[in-house]
Structure formats: structure tokens, C-alpha cells
């Protein structure tokens, strides 16, 4: 089964579960009912999703795998790559906005699910943090965790606007992420220096020493 087919199958099961939760309540809905509504066997459901609360967050698990694979690829700028990862997550939820909004409404009503979603959201932030530390071994851990938290917070703020019913284009998130990078002092420039130039580099005081070193090293070849 292709990645697209797997994603479509997961979304179908999640949608079926949300339909039943809305009709008869979360506690009153059984795994057997969800499996039947989604057109899968009970054994297949348990093998792929686990319990009925697991199916609600199944796309988070898949997204984390996709995001991890994306970060494992070769990228030129670790700071910008974290933002691209946030864009990847946002586009997924934007493409599946109906399911995402219905889950948001359900999770808000059930404290146990709300706590689990908090943990799921933190895993994205931790993945960004680990990526920066791996790509920039000399980075100050405070810079890594602060930047990861900033990007995750910006993403979540814009995503919540969409989940509450507003139409939010990916370009809106992109603009906010650029502003976040600018505040952190790591937004790149489009200016290309000449090979024979003598360059005096000036960096924002807020830019982490690790990023200053990376950019100078890149220019020295």
C-alpha cells in the first residue's frame, strides 16, 4: 500500500470513529462499532490502532514518522528546516481540516484526551530540539530548546485558528515563522556575496554563537 493509500485509510477510520463519538458519545462507542463503520476487521483495527483513544491520535503518530524522515534528509540550514517541518505538519492538517476540527472539538470535551494531546504536541517540539542539537553540536541547549518551543508555539497558534473555523492559508503560517526566525536572529538573506569581496560580517546580538560559527564556516568553504 502506498503512503497516500495508507494516509487515506487512516483518515477514513478516524472519520468513522469521530462520527460515532458525535452520535452516541465517546464512552458509549466500542472498538467493534468503529471497525464495522470503517469497514475493517476487529483484529485489523487493534493491530493498526490499538484502542479507541489511539485511533483519535493515529495521524499524529504517522506525522511524527513522516517528520522524522524529513529531518533525516540533508538540508542546508537547520533553523529553516525546523520551520519547513512545521509547515509540513500544518499542510497535513489543512488538507484534512474537517477531521482535524472534529477531533479538536472532541478532545476539548474530554480531559484524558486533552492531556494526551498535550503530550503528542510536545513530541513535535522535542523532535525539533533533538534535530538542532544533532545538526549543530556546539549549540547552546537553551538556544535549541527555546527555538524549538518558539516554532512549535507559532505553529500551534496558527493551527488553532484554523481548527476554530477560520480559513488560514499556509502562507499565513510561513509569514509568522519568518518573523519568529527574524526575532531569533536566524532568518537568512537573499544577498549573494561576490567571490573576491572582502566581507565584514555583522550578526544580530540575539543570534546564537552556533549559527554565527556555521555561517562563517560555510563562507570559508
TrEMBL record:
What superkingdom heads the lineage?
Bacteria
* Record bears the keyword DNA-binding: yes
GO function terms (MF aspect): DNA-binding transcription factor activity; transcription cis-regulatory region binding
Q: Which Pfam families match?
A: TetR_N
Q: Which residues form the HTH tetR-type domain?
A: 7-67
Q: Which UniProt keywords apply?
A: DNA-binding
Q: Which residues bind DNA?
A: 30-49
PROSITE patterns in the record, alphabetically? HTH_TETR_2
Do the record's keywords include Zinc-finger?
Answer: no
InterPro entries recorded for this chain?
A: Homeodomain-like_sf, HTH-type_TetR-like_transc_reg, HTH_TetR
- Name the PANTHER family for this protein: HTH-TYPE TRANSCRIPTIONAL REGULATOR PKSA, HTH-TYPE TRANSCRIPTIONAL REGULATOR RUTR
Q: What is this protein called?
A: TetR family transcriptional regulator
Organism in which the protein naturally occurs: Microbacterium mitrae
Amino acid at each position: 500500500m502506498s503512503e497516500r493509500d495508507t494516509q487515506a485509510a487512516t483518515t477514513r477510520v478516524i472519520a468513522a470513529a469521530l462520527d460515532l463519538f458525535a452520535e452516541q458519545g465517546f464512552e458509549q462507542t466500542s472498538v467493534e462499532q468503529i471497525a464495522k463503520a470503517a469497514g475493517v476487521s476487529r483484529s485489523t483495527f487493534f493491530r493498526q490502532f490499538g484502542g479507541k483513544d489511539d485511533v483519535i491520535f493515529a495521524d499524529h503518530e504517522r506525522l511524527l514518522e513522516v517528520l522524522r524522515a524529513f529531518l533525516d534528509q540533508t538540508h542546508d540550514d537547520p533553523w529553516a528546516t525546523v520551520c519547513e517541518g512545521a509547515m509540513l505538519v500544518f499542510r497535513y492538517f489543512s488538507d484534512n481540516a474537517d477531521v482535524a476540527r472534529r477531533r479538536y472539538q472532541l478532545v476539548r470535551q474530554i480531559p484524558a484526551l486533552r492531556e494526551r494531546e498535550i503530550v503528542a504536541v510536545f513530541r513535535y517540539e522535542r523532535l525539533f530540539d533533538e534535530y538542532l542539537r544533532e545538526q549543530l553540536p556546539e549549540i547552546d541547549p537553551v538556544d535549541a530548546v527555546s527555538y524549538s518551543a518558539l516554532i512549535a508555539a507559532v505553529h500551534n497558534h496558527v493551527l488553532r485558528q484554523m481548527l476554530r473555523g477560520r480559513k488560514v492559508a499556509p502562507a499565513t503560517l510561513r509569514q509568522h515563522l519568518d518573523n519568529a526566525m527574524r526575532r531569533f536572529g536566524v532568518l537568512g538573506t537573499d544577498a549573494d556575496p561576490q567571490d573576491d569581496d572582502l566581507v565584514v560580517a555583522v550578526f544580530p546580538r540575539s543570534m546564537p554563537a552556533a549559527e554565527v560559527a556555521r555561517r562563517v564556516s560555510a563562507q570559508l568553504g
